[in-house]
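Need a sequence for this fold. Nothing fancy.
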């Protein structure tokens, strides 16, 4: 089927930046923002959804949430300590929320007043994190939510001409913010898009396609998964011809492909929460918390199916991690110290899981077979 905004490449990227991505094996996700202050609670009540979505709860007035920035002061935030913890855990890449759906920017954005400089903390948080992780040898990816509840020009759908006019302004704003991020933080290896499921964005395939090309020109080697674009018909991830629109498949959220055929032979990563659901800090973790052992098994499974595995952390409003996360990171790190050879640079060995465990293959083990 002829498509103007479908996949522009069939098959995998094979350049050095993408090969490096493919070799990571283990990654870390960090969700940090205004929602970290509340930890899922407001006025003695507990929100049962994911804590970073609390602004959408009808019991919490938007006005209250949007004024939380006045209390945002992660005084114990220590980017070097965050990087050290990630290093010990053995992660090769980290994805940091620069702006979640609430629209609050952790960097001093010229394009939105709803940003870190207006808080009691005042200082940029993204730059110090980028530099600390980069210095520790951990590649940095920036999470960016296109959907922005704070911007008046954001639309869920484009029903009227006025909607389109507002949304065009929103597109320019989005492009400006992304340009700003890549300019301020040139160490960035890739962008992790989110909040791209609404009709307004799905109708904007021409724009997301041109944005993708623009960002890659601005920042050669940049890696962007399949959550950014939509094709001519509003298909996401895969175009109407079934081809992946992105450098890797980004649809594996809190789920892992059942077997190799489910990956369609694409690059992919799985992002996983430690609790049942919820990415930002929640005072109470509801449901089952995955043990380090369970997470390690998931990691082995992902790598055995040619994917990377990314574990999410949600630091508290003061900038420190809950003990459970610190212990989880440490135990995974202890396991990685012994077994990293089966994870870094490793992938599908041609065998599905056997009763005694997973197989992964590296170039070295491949040579010795
Ligand atoms: O709505 C978000 C959610 O809060 C979280 O950021 C996850 C991470 O993959 N992404 C969205 C849901 O797909």
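Here you go.
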């Amino acid at each position: 089927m002829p498509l103007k905004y479908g996949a522009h490449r069939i098959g995998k990227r094979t350049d050095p930046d993408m090969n490096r991505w493919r070799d990571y094996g283990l990654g870390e996700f960090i969700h940090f923002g205004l929602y970290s202050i509340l930890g899922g609670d407001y006025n003695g009540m507990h929100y049962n959804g994911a804590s970073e979505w609390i602004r959408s709860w009808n019991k919490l007035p938007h006005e209250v949430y949007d004024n939380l920035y006045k209390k945002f002061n992660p005084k114990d935030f220590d980017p070097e300590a965050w990087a050290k913890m990630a290093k010990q855990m053995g992660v090769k890449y980290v994805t940091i929320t620069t702006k979640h759906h609430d629209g609050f920017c952790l960097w001093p954005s010229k394009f939105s007043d709803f940003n870190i400089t207006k808080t009691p903390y005042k200082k940029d948080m993204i730059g110090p994190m980028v530099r600390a992780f980069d210095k520790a040898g951990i590649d940095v990816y920036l999470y960016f939510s296109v959907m922005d509840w704070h911007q008046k020009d954001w639309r869920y759908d484009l029903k009227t001409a006025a909607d389109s006019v507002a949304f065009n302004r929103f597109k320019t704003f989005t492009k400006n913010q992304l340009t700003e991020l890549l300019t301020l933080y040139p160490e960035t290896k890739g962008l992790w898009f989110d909040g791209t499921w609404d009709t307004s964005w799905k109708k904007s395939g021409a724009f997301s396609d041109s944005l993708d090309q623009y960002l890659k020109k601005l920042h050669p080697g940049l890696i962007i998964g399949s959550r950014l674009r939509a094709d001519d018909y509003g298909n996401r991830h895969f175009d109407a011809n079934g081809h992946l629109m992105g450098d890797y498949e980004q649809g594996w959220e809190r789920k892992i492909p059942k077997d190799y055929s489910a990956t369609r032979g694409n690059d992919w990563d799985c992002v996983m929460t430690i609790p049942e659901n919820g990415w930002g800090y929640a005072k109470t973790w509801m449901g089952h918390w995955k043990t380090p052992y369970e997470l390690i098994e998931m990691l082995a499974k992902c790598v055995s199916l040619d994917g990377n595995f990314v574990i999410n952390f949600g630091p508290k409003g003061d900038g420190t991690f809950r003990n459970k996360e610190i212990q989880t990171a440490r135990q995974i790190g202890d396991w990685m110290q012994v077994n990293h050879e089966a994870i870094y640079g490793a992938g599908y060995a041609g065998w599905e899981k056997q009763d005694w465990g997973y197989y992964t293959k590296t170039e070295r083990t491949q040579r010795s077979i």
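For context: The chain has one domain: 16-368.
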